[in-house]
């Protein structure tokens, strides 16, 4: 039996996580939105209107990259710019109703495909996964750009 150190756990599950990630995105009917675009849209949905600098910081990307991604989303009418009420010189971006609808559609579609993947498990394995879901959520919530920059990694 292997030791349960973080390095050993990571070594053991990394290949499976990569495979599941790739299969999840291949199986799901693809939106023509990229992963980073969907991530930005999700942040806007969660946080509301945001400055481009805030989007870049939270996504862990450079300002020009964030600006370009937002410009592409704006061209598709998925986001739009609004004046920052607290600083009239500033601009924020927010999801449009079309952007929110597309984000919800893609999310629901991917949840269905993930549910299909989970449905292939035995009842016992599905129950175990249900127990692990809270740990996975906790890990996802605690892992982010801020935690990377604090550790210097």
Keywords:
elongated; 8% strand; Arc Repressor Mutant, subunit A; disordered C terminus; 153 residues
The helix/strand series, from N terminus to C terminus, equals HHEHHEEHHH
CATH architecture of the largest domain: Orthogonal Bundle
Derived structural class: mainly alpha
Describe the sheet with the most strands. 3 strands, antiparallel
Rg measurement, Å:
19 Å
Uncertain regions spanning at least 5 consecutive residues: 147-153
CATH class of the largest domain: Mainly Alpha
| Count of β-strands | 3
- The tally of domains stands at 2
State the helical fraction. 55-70%
Shape: elongated
The helix tally amounts to 7
Query: In CATH, what is the homologous superfamily of the largest domain?
Result: Winged helix-like DNA-binding domain superfamily/Winged helix DNA-binding domain
> Whole-number average pLDDT?
85
Beginning-to-end CA distance, first to last residue: 30 Å
CATH topology type of the largest domain: Arc Repressor Mutant, subunit A
Strand order of the largest sheet: 1-3-2
Our estimate of the beta-strand percent is 5-15%
């Amino acid at each position: 039996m292997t030791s349960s150190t973080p390095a050993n756990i990571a070594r053991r599950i990394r290949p499976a996580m990569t495979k599941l990630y790739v299969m999840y995105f291949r199986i799901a009917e693809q939106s023509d939105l990229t992963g980073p675009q969907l991530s930005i849209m999700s942040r806007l949905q969660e946080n509301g209107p945001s400055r481009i600098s805030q989007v870049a910081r939270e996504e862990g990307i450079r300002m020009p990259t964030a600006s370009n991604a937002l410009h592409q989303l704006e061209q598709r009418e998925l986001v739009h710019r609004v004046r920052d009420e607290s600083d009239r010189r500033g601009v924020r971006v927010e999801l449009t109703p079309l952007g929110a609808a597309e984000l919800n559609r893609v999310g629901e579609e991917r949840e269905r495909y993930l549910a299909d993947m989970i449905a292939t498990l035995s009842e016992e394995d599905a129950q175990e996964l249900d127990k692990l879901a809270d740990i996975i959520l906790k890990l996802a919530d605690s892992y982010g750009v801020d935690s990377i920059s604090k550790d210097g990694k």
